[in-house]
Amino acid sequence: MGCWKQEGSNTWTFPTLVLCLYGFFNMMKPSEPFLTPYLTGPDKNLTIDEVTNQIFPVWTYSYLALLLPVFLITDYVRYKPVLLLQGISYIVTWLLLLFAHGVVAMQVMEFFYGMVTATEVAYYAYIYSVVSADRYQRVTSYCRSITLVAATVAAVLGQLLVSLADVSYFHLNAITLASVSLAFLCSFLLPMPQKSMFFHKKGVSETLPQPQKAVATLASNGPSSCQQQDEDCAAAGTGPAPQQQAEQPKPQNHMLRVLVQLSRDLRDCYSSRKLLYWSLWWALATAGFNQIVNYIQVLWDFRAPSHSSAVYNGAVEAIATFLSSVTSFMVAYVKVNWDLFGELALGIFSTIDAGSLFLMHFTTNIWSCYAGYLIFKASYMLLITIATFQIAVNLSMERYALMFGLNNFIALVIQTILTVVVVDSRGLGLNIVTQFLIYGSYFAVIAGIFLIRSICMLLSSKCKRKIARSWKEPLNLAEHEPKEQTVTGYTTRL
């Protein structure tokens, strides 16, 4: 049995299967859409203001504090220990949700949930260290699909249990605890990787897929530093050329050397204007999206109090996940020149996001709130898929992972500022309805930035075409003019 397991662990199927099981049970949380009704109900007996202004902000703060160190530690310890840490954090989170009481206890719970979200990076990064490069796309598809299926099934199951079987929120959380405990057990079956992206490389040929060994040419209006770094942009983390190594002192400490190389990679990648603007939208929009997802249940509970109204949070989350999957899938079949119209799409759909948030602010009807949330989430998922593709297509896998981590970190910094100023009781401590007015205005500003920039780009491209035509027209006229020939000093027309 042990020999079979060792042999199976060396193939791509065994770790992929175990990782998919791990992802499924981690996302199988039927209680999650009903967190706010559970906290404000008889089980915890917390007020809506305590939940909004004192408990939920802790998740943002802990996520921000943990993300950057966890991102680096994940690669250094080669992923599996971080997956085990995530499993432990999940279990502690739901044990506190089930058996702890009071504001402080729930704040501790939110801290551990911040640990859960900070360690999510290990889930997708792990697979790239145990499968060959030619299977990256297929395995990534499996892992992402299984989490979407699990989230949809969990939301539907939770809604059915609440609406039809009259199951209490406490028992929903007990089911979730059992599910995340199974995920924790699955993580022990994962083989320990022998390499990682940055700190434990085994050579570029093993790390990068063939199409990604040469970085695609970046936007023409960006600086050329990323394109001319002696193949530094061709494979992230390979280090400077031999001539550069002779000029610059090489750090003795391996970790310091890797960190220096990572900082160079980030500098080179953000020197591309195209990647810079897509990353700017990513950070701004993700900060707003996380804020909406974190507080949407509070708004629903305000519009239709759970103690006196039927709660359909699970059904709405299931539909939202399905619509997000459909819109993300559609991106693969849309033929658009994203270099020219990408920022216009960012502006238009950010406007739709802003409109849906304003709808949720001004309406008093819970069904309108539900509809606004569905539109908002589907629109964001469509755009984040486009942004991910536009960034990834120009970078090697290591550089994409770096930009992914830094963009999310910047998003968390922005989200933390929003939380401190708008939500936290030590800041303005605004009520939930006014918060959504602020969030709608926030997305309106994002839309304005990218609409203005896209219009300027389109006008600039039209001007360039007119100038090009004006240069061509005289040349075309010259071709039709009578030709001149010089004969013994005299010019004659033919």
UniProtKB/TrEMBL annotation:
<keyword id="KW-0813">Transport</keyword>
<feature type="region of interest" description="Disordered">
    <location>
        <begin position="218"/>
        <end position="251"/>
    </location>
</feature>
<feature type="transmembrane region" description="Helical">
    <location>
        <begin position="58"/>
        <end position="77"/>
    </location>
</feature>
<feature type="transmembrane region" description="Helical">
    <location>
        <begin position="370"/>
        <end position="393"/>
    </location>
</feature>
<feature type="transmembrane region" description="Helical">
    <location>
        <begin position="344"/>
        <end position="364"/>
    </location>
</feature>
<feature type="transmembrane region" description="Helical">
    <location>
        <begin position="275"/>
        <end position="298"/>
    </location>
</feature>
<keyword id="KW-1133">Transmembrane helix</keyword>
<feature type="compositionally biased region" description="Polar residues">
    <location>
        <begin position="218"/>
        <end position="228"/>
    </location>
</feature>
<dbReference type="GO" id="GO:0015234">
    <property type="term" value="F:thiamine transmembrane transporter activity"/>
</dbReference>
<feature type="transmembrane region" description="Helical">
    <location>
        <begin position="111"/>
        <end position="131"/>
    </location>
</feature>
<feature type="compositionally biased region" description="Low complexity">
    <location>
        <begin position="234"/>
        <end position="251"/>
    </location>
</feature>
<feature type="transmembrane region" description="Helical">
    <location>
        <begin position="143"/>
        <end position="164"/>
    </location>
</feature>
<feature type="transmembrane region" description="Helical">
    <location>
        <begin position="170"/>
        <end position="192"/>
    </location>
</feature>
<keyword id="KW-0472">Membrane</keyword>
<comment type="similarity">
    <text>Belongs to the reduced folate carrier (RFC) transporter (TC 2.A.48) family.</text>
</comment>
<dbReference type="InterPro" id="IPR036259">
    <property type="entry name" value="MFS_trans_sf"/>
</dbReference>
<dbReference type="InterPro" id="IPR002666">
    <property type="entry name" value="Folate_carrier"/>
</dbReference>
<feature type="transmembrane region" description="Helical">
    <location>
        <begin position="84"/>
        <end position="105"/>
    </location>
</feature>
<dbReference type="GO" id="GO:0005886">
    <property type="term" value="C:plasma membrane"/>
</dbReference>
<feature type="transmembrane region" description="Helical">
    <location>
        <begin position="436"/>
        <end position="459"/>
    </location>
</feature>
<keyword id="KW-0812">Transmembrane</keyword>
<feature type="transmembrane region" description="Helical">
    <location>
        <begin position="12"/>
        <end position="28"/>
    </location>
</feature>
<protein>
    <recommendedName>
        <fullName>Thiamine transporter 2</fullName>
    </recommendedName>
</protein>
<dbReference type="Pfam" id="PF01770">
    <property type="entry name" value="Folate_carrier"/>
</dbReference>
<feature type="transmembrane region" description="Helical">
    <location>
        <begin position="310"/>
        <end position="332"/>
    </location>
</feature>
<feature type="transmembrane region" description="Helical">
    <location>
        <begin position="400"/>
        <end position="424"/>
    </location>
</feature>
